[in-house]
Automatic annotation (TrEMBL):
The lineage of its organism: Bacteria, Pseudomonadati, Acidobacteriota, Terriglobia, Terriglobales. It comes from Granulicella tundricola (strain ATCC BAA-1859 / DSM 23138 / MP5ACTX9). GO terms for biological process: dTDP-rhamnose biosynthetic process. NCBIfam families: rmlD. CDD domains: dTDP_HR_like_SDR_e (cd05254). Transmembrane segments: none annotated. This is dTDP-4-dehydrorhamnose reductase. Pathway: Carbohydrate biosynthesis; dTDP-L-rhamnose biosynthesis. The keyword Oxidoreductase applies. It catalyses: dTDP-beta-L-rhamnose + NADP(+) = dTDP-4-dehydro-beta-L-rhamnose + NADPH + H(+). Gene3D superfamilies: NAD(P)-binding Rossmann-like Domain, UDP-galactose 4-epimerase, domain 1.
Length: 304
C-alpha cells in the first residue's frame, strides 16, 4: 500500500517522525524499516525497499552521526551520508516521490560573524560534515524533487545526544568542563518532526489533485531549520541544569565550568559558529520555529 517511507526510525528525528505521522493519521501507511530491513550502506537494499513499497513520500533522517568516529570511518560515513541520499534520490525520481532529507550545520567552517544563509559557501571541517555536504549535492543531482533541512544540535528525551550526556554526568561528577566558544542552536527532534509534518500537509494541499513532485520542484533546495535563538554548548548545558535544579531541588548537580575549545580536544574539529538563519524556511512555509529554551523546557519534562 502506498504511504510514507521513513528511514532511521530508531534515531531521534526518525522516531519522532514515525510517532507523529502515525498518530496524526492512523489510515496513512507509515513504513519505517530498521537497519535489518534497509541497510543504507547497501545500494541494492535501498533500491529494493523503494521499489517494493512505492511510497508517495520519502523522508530520510537516517545518518551516520558519530562526528568523531567518522574521522576514522570515512567509508561508512560516506556510504550512509553521501551515497544513500543519491540512491534514494534516483529511485524517488523514477517513481515521482519527493524526498525530504536532513543535513547539518557542520557543513560550515564556522568563521562567519552572522548566521549562515542557505547560499553561503559550505566548507566542512571534518569527515561527517564533508559526507553530509556530499549527500546534499548527490540528492540535488539525482533528479528527485527534494527539500533538504539543515538543522543543528539535535536532542530529544531519548537517544544519544549532548543534553542526555550532560544530565547523566552532572549527577555523577562535581564539575563538568564545557566548551563556551562554539555557537549554535539546540534543536528538539520533535520540533523538526512537527515542522516536517506541517510542510508535508502544506505541500499536499498546494498540489491538490496535481503532481506532488512537480509542485515541489519550484521551491526545492536547502532550508535552514533550527529552533530560534542561539547559545553555546556551555549555555545549553547551563540552561538545562538551571531548569533541572528548579525541578529537583534536592539533587546536587555538577558545577559547570566554561572552557575554550582548545581545552577539549576531539578527533573532529567543530565549527566555532554554526548559527543558521531560518528566514527562508519561515517565508516559504509560514513556519516559525520556537525559541530553543521553550523546546528544551518541554523536553526536560519528559526526562526523569
Ligand atoms: N544529532 C544531531 O545533533 C544532528 C543531526 N543532524 C541530522 O539530522 C538527521 C537526524 O539525526 P538524528 O535523528 O539525531 O540521528 P540519530 O543518530 O539519532 O539516528 C540515526 C539513524 O540513522 C540510522 N542509520 C545509521 N546508519 C544506518 C544504516 N547503515 N542503515 C540504516 N539505518 C542507519 C540509525 O539506525 P541504528 O539505530 O540502527 O544505528 C538511526 O536510526 C541526520 O541527517 C543528521 O545528520 C543535523 C544536525 C544535528
Ligand atoms: C560531553 C561534553 C562535550 N563537550 C563539547 C564537545 C563538543 O565541542 C561539544 C558537543 O559535543 P557532542 O559530541 O555531544 O556533540 P557533537 O557530536 O559535536 O554534535 C553534533 O552532532 C552532529 C550529528 C551534528 O550534526 C551537529 O549539529 C552537532 O549536534 O561539546 C564539552 O565541552 N564537555 C563535555 O562534557
Ligand atoms: Mg557526538
Amino acid at each position: 500500500m502506498p504511504g510514507i517511507l521513513i528511514t532511521g526510525s530508531t534515531g531521534q528525528v526518525g522516531g519522532e517522525l514515525v510517532r507523529l505521522f502515525r498518530s496524526q493519521n492512523p489510515s496513512l501507511e507509515v513504513h519505517a524499516p530498521d537497519r535489518s530491513q534497509l541497510d543504507l550502506r547497501d545500494p541494492a537494499s535501498i533500491r529494493d525497499v523503494v521499489r517494493t513499497l512505492l511510497p508517495q513520500w520519502i523522508i530520510n533522517p537516517a545518518a551516520y552521526t558519530a562526528v568523531d568516529r567518522a574521522e576514522s570511518d570515512q567509508e561508512d560515513a560516506f556510504a550512509v551520508n553521501a551515497e544513500a541520499p543519491r540512491i534514494l534520490g534516483e529511485e524517488a525520481a523514477v517513481i515521482g516521490a519527493p524526498v525530504l532529507h536532513f543535513s547539518t550545520d557542520y557543513v560550515f567552517a564556522g568563521d562567519a560573524e552572522r548566521p549562515y544563509e542557505e547560499t553561503d559557501l559550505a566548507k566542512p571541517l571534518g569527515v561527517y560534515g564533508l559526507s553530509k555536504l556530499a549527500g546534499e549535492r548527490n540528492l540535488a543531482a539525482s533528479g528527485a524533487a527534494h527539500l533538504i533541512f539543515r538543522t543543528s544540535w539535535v536532542y530529544g528525551a531519548t537517544g544519544k545526544n549532548f543534553l542526555r550526556t550532560i544530565l547523566r554526568v552532572a549527577r555523577q561528577q562535581p564539575q563538568m568542563r564545557i566548551v563556551a566558544d562554539q555557537h549554535g542552536a539546540p534543536t528538539a527532534a520533535r520540533d523538526l518532526a512537527q515542522m516536517t509534518a506541517t510542510i508535508v500537509a502544506q505541500l499536499e494541499e498546494t498540489a491538490g489533485a496535481g503532481d506532488l513532485a512537480e509542485a515541489i520542484r519550484s521551491i526545492q533546495g536547502i532550508y535552514n531549520a533550527t529552533n530560534s535563538g542561539d547559545t553555546t554548548w556551555f549555555g545549553f548545558a547551563e540552561e538545562a541544569l538551571r531548569l533541572r535544579r528548579a525541578a529537583e531541588p534536592c539533587i546536587s548537580f555538577a558545577e559547570l565550568i566554561p572552557i575554550p575549545t582548545a581545552e577539549y580536544p576531539t578527533p573532529a574539529r567543530r565549527p566555532a559558529s554554526s548559527r543558521l538563519s531560518c528566514v527562508k524556511l519561515s517565508r516559504t512555509f509560514v513556519i516559525q520555529m520556537r525559541p530553543w529554551q521553550t523546546a528544551l523546557g518541554e523536553v526536560l519534562k519528559e526526562i526523569s
